[in-house]
Each structure stands twice: as structure tokens, then as C-alpha cells.
Amino acid sequence: MHALEVKNLCKSFNSINAVDNVSFTISENSIFGLIGRNGAGKTTTIRMMMNIYLPDKGEVILRGAKIGQEFRDRVGYLPEERGLYKQMKVIDTVQFFAEVKGKTGRKLLKKADEYLERFGLLDRKNSKVEDLSKGNQQKLQFITTILHDPDFVILDEPFSGLDPVNINIIKEIILELKQKGKVIIFSTHLMDFAEKLCDEIAMIDRGKIILSGKLSEIKKSYAQNNISLHYRGDLSFLNENPIIESIQDFGNTTGIKLKHGTDSQLLLKMLVDNNIALTKFDANEISLQEIFINLAGKDE
Amino acid sequence: MMINYRTIAIIKRELKAKLFSKSFISMTLFIPIFMIGILGIQTYLMKYESDSNTVLFVAAGNYTLKERLQSEFADQDYVKSKDYTIVCLSVADSKFDGFLTERKKELLEGKISAIVQVPDSALIKKDIGYYSTNPNNNTVHLKIRDAINKVLVETYFEGKNLSEDDLQYAKARVSITGYKVTKDEKVEEEGPGNTILAFVFTFLIYFALLMIGTMMMRSVQEEKNTRVVEVLLSSVSSFELISGKIIGLVITSLVQMAIWLTPVMLLISTSWFVIPPELILKIDFTLILFFLYNYGISLVTFLGLFAMVGAVFANDQDAQNGVWPVTMTIMIPFFIALSMMSNPENNIARISSMLPIASLMVMPARLTMIEVPLWQFILSLFVNLISAYVIFRVAAKLYRIGILRTGKSPKWSEIVKWLKYKD
């Protein structure tokens, strides 16, 4: 049985189909990424999963039963548009959001202190939220999302607006939560994060799911004829080359798709002959970014 | 309403943010001071400002009248205190127009406040002329009327063989004392104390409802604008959220009202305060309890509406437009209740004391002033409970739809359509 199952969700606003028949499944103890461009329908889908928006059609199933208050009690939700009470103190804020989930007591306060310390906010616990910087407010909001020890953690664009150090702390915590057996669902338009963290993904574009499943299997199925390069030099000689179907060039990293039946060794020889200094030549790997651009970008 | 740990958490937060906030505590203490201050200023203005330095020229139709008026005015407190300067002159009725023309300049320049003509004919018809740039100054009229009447009566009955007692009787003004007739066969003298109390009750409900309502609206707007509501709705249902907020603010406002009513309760239950006998209050604790209960129902009714406006209209300007129908439903009953001060049994007041919403403000005022038939009282309780429930359900529904909407504010026609949405 899946931990969570999203079935045929539809939502439209003033005749615009924001989410159109979206379905995917999320396994127990996994990290799931809902990926797509800005405005693709990620947040609307998540809001329907959280029962904040009522879907026009479809349902969300939690371990075989339709979601209700039980799910709300067991979920920690970080919305895309962060929101805290500006006049409240930091410690009152974390306490309040835990109380709403039915968690109180000394243990909780101790745990709150631990998280505040980890994010460098312990000395600000008696400050008002409005006195914190935007970044610190985001860290505080993340703490309120996970402090009550939820079984499901839903994070809508969790890394946006954070510096690399704090991004790393959040990544660490996500992995810790996974080790504790939790299900983590996050949305992002940053493919790199999804690729590094996720076990499963669903790719959404213009309100429709265009790809979903285990990330390893997706990459495997898209790996044929794909070569990932890290290099120094000029690759312009490959343009219009008869063995190349397409090139995604990002400067130092490039994904190359060869035409069907072409031996990758032929490409390697051409690169060496043209004095390209290779630091990585991976004939099996395709990046999530490339998959996404191939699928979502082809109608542009 | 559902009470569970989620609503309790919301209630606790509301109490902490509102009841224990510095601004709320200072407002609670400030309003009685403000009310007393307003009454004090009004009294001061009436006493010292409106008619001090009044200069009156009294033109009596003959010499006898002039002498008597001069002597009577000299005994008046307002002349002794030098607030009024009254110059009595003998001016024959036929020469009065010329006299007025002569003094016109002084009247226009304000050197003379008024010329009072007491003609000979006043001894037949008691018609007095008052010539001034401000001819309908009631403060002056009321003050000089009794003295002039006294002189006219004395002059009129002179030589008619009346005893001093007869004369005193003829000069005296009719005095009306109110006696309240109640069902329990008691007939008690009643001074204006209860009317003043009804005014205080009405004013307190009006002011407190607007204050707490605005507080609710701003709180919902804040949650909407800062998007806290999205996090809250991931934990609680919108119904639990609005219920928790309303309960929190009902408690807050009832505590505030109880604080404001403490002086009234002390007044009727202790002998700590010495008040004039005519101001003694004829009420008991049941009325105070009913008042608090009624106020609680008013809060549920109106807080739901204010929350709905805050949820539907996110920015302040749209909210101002959106809130006026709600404000009107508080203001109209307020004015109806005030109209009862002159006649507590007027028809509009009687009918509106049994109508939804209006009853919340009019019935407590009626109960304070007169004995209301039991059926009317029970009907108003019933009507208020039903209307509070219906309004709460409608407000909760519009709140749920409005709270997550972004972008431009909806039109009223759209809001009506929302009512047809399925939950």
C-alpha cells in the first residue's frame, strides 16, 4: 500500500485549469519531489493535498482511506508563501504551532531549543518575529513545520530564499527525517535539489503530470544515448554534427543525446581529437534537468 | 461550535494577543475615563461657557413691571454670580420699535446678548419677545422664564385678594414625578437613574461592539495578508479557526464589559457611593446577567460578520467599503435605543426590540427603563439565538471561501454566489 495516493485531482480558477487530472503515488519512508516550473500547478496540488483548497474533482488517499483531520494532525506543512504572526515572540510561535497539533510540554520546549540552536536562533527566542530577518523568519517557519514530529512533512519550495549554509541544514534534517521513517514531500523548480534528494518524483507542467515514478527508474529509462560531460574547451564543432541529436550546454557541464545506434566511443574520440579536456564522461547518466527540458520544454 | 485542543490553542493565542495586550488594557481603562471626561466637558460647557457674560436688556411695558423684574432678577443666582448682567428698563409698547432700532448696533456687535420685551399685553397673554442674533438660545430662555413668570403672576393677581399661599401656588411650576407600575403590584417612584443607565448600556454595547469588531477584522486581515492562515488551515478547519477566534474575542470583550459594569454593580449592591436619591437605580443582578448574556450573543453575531469582511476584503480601503453594512446594523439600533430616552415605549423601539440584530441593543435598554411583557422578552431571546446561529453559519462559509482568495476584492454579487457553493 502507498503512504499517499493522489487520484485525478482537478482544480480550475475562472475557467483556467490550474490542475488537470493529476495523479501520483508516494511510497512509505521516501522523499518525494513534485517538480515543475513556476506556475505549473505544484502549489495548487499541494494545497489540495492539505485540504486547503477543495478539489473540483479527485481525491487524496492516506494509507487506503480518504484524508481528513487525521492527516492534518500528522502532517507538517511549510507553505510557499511563508506566514507567521509578526507580533509574537519566537518561542511563543513554535509553541503555538505545536499546540495546534496537540503537542505541549517540557520535552517539546527542549526540542524547540535544540532546533533553534541548530539554526542559530536560540539567542533570539524571546525576540518578536518582526524583529528577525527574512531568512531567520524562514528558518523559524521550518522549525514550526517539523517540531511536532509529524509523519508527513510537506515542504513547498523549502530552499527558496535561504543561504547555502541553511540550505545544507535543511537538507540534513530532511535526510534525518527519512531515517526516522517519515515521508517527505517537497515541491521545487530546482532540479538539482530534487535529483540529489528524491527517491520518487512527479513532474508537472501546465497543470498536468508529464512524468512520475521512482527517480532511479526514470533516469534509467532516459539514459539510452545520453552522455553527460564535464569539460574545458569549445564544443561548437559538435553543432550540426550528424551523430548528435541534441545538446544541452551549461558551460562546464553538457548533456548530449546521440542519434539512435551511434557508439558513444565515437563521440569520445571526436572530443579528444578536438583537444577538449574532459573531467567527466558519463555515458549512462542523464540529469533530471535534461529530462525536464526534453519533456516540458519541447512545446516552447 | 467544536471545542478541542486545536480550538483551545487558537482561543489561548487570541487571549494572549488581545486580552493581555497593552493597547487593549489601556483602551479598557481609557473608555470610562473618556466617557466621564465627555460628560464633564459637556457639563462644564453648559455651566460656564454657553451663557456666561450674557447681557440682557429687559424692556418692561411699564414702570411697575420694570421695578418688579429688576428686583426678581437681582435675586437670581446667575445674576449674583455675574454670569448674567440684566438691565431692566421701562419702555412703553408703542416705543419698543424705536428702542430696538437704537440698540440694534449693540446687538449686532454682541455688546448686548438679547433684548427681552415684556409688554403690557404679557399680563393677558404671557407672550414675551426675545430679540437677539441667536434668538432660540434655550439655555437663556429656561433661565429667565421662571423669574418673568413669577413677576407676571404676582402683578396679575395683585389686588385680587389672594392669600400668599394662593399666590405661591399660582407661581409654582408643575412638577412631574415618574412612578413605575410593575406586574407585582408595586408602584415605585422612579427618577432618571434608569434612563441614564439605559443610555450607558446602549453606549457601551455600541462602542464595545465596534471596537472588538474592528479588532477581529484587522486580525483576520493580518492572517490573510501575512499568509499565516495557510499554515493554520493545514492544522485546523476553517470552522474551528473562526470558532476559536470568536470564542477568544467573546471572552476578551465580556471581561472588558464586566470591568466597565463593575461600578454599576457596586452602585446597586453597596452603599459605598452617595448618589442623589432621584438617581438611585431600580435594577437587580438579573438584569446585569441578562445584559452580559445578551452582549455575548451580540458578539457571536457581529464578530462572525466582521471576520467575514476581513476575510473577503484584504486591503484596508476595500474593507472600509465592505464593513459599512455591518456598521449600519450596529448604528441603526443604537439610534433607536437612544430615541427611547424621551419615550421608552415608542413603537419603533417596541418592534425593533424583537427583530433580529436590532433586538440586541434595543431590548437591554427597554428592560432597564420599563417592564417588558414576558412574551416579548422570550421572543427576543429566541430571535437572537436563531439569528446568531444563522449569521455565524453564513459568515463561517464566506470566511472559508474568502480567506484564501487573493487578487482584487470581489463584488457583492459574487459574494452572494459564494453562498451557493457546496461545503
Q: Mind explaining what this structure looks like?
A:
The complex is a heterodimer of chains A (300) and B (423). With 300 residues, chain A is an alpha/beta fold. Chain A has two domains: 216 residues, Rossmann fold (3-Layer(aba) Sandwich); 73 residues, Alpha-Beta Plaits (2-Layer Sandwich), CATH 3.30.70. Helix content of chain A is 34%, strand content 29%. Chain A is built from ten helices and 14 strands. Chain A has a six-stranded mixed beta sheet with strand order 6-7-8-3-9-10, sandwiched between helices. Chain A has a four-stranded antiparallel beta sheet with strand order 2-1-4-5, with helices on one face. In chain A, helix 3 packs parallel to helix 5. Chain B is an alpha/beta fold and 423 residues long. Chain B folds into two domains: 257 residues, no CATH class; 122 residues, 3-Layer(aba) Sandwich (D-Maltodextrin-Binding Protein, domain 2), CATH 3.40.190. Helices cover 67% and strands 7% of the residues of chain B. Chain B contains 17 helices and six strands. Chain B has a four-stranded mixed beta sheet with strand order 2-1-3-4, with helices on both faces. In chain B, helix 9 runs antiparallel to helix 11 and helix 12 packs antiparallel against helix 13. Chain B starts with a helix and ends in a 5-residue tail after the last helix. At the A-B interface, helix 2 and helix 3 of A face helix 1 and helix 10 of B.
Short overview:
The complex is a heterodimer of chains A (300) and B (423). Chain A has 300 residues and is α/β, with parallel strands linked by helices.
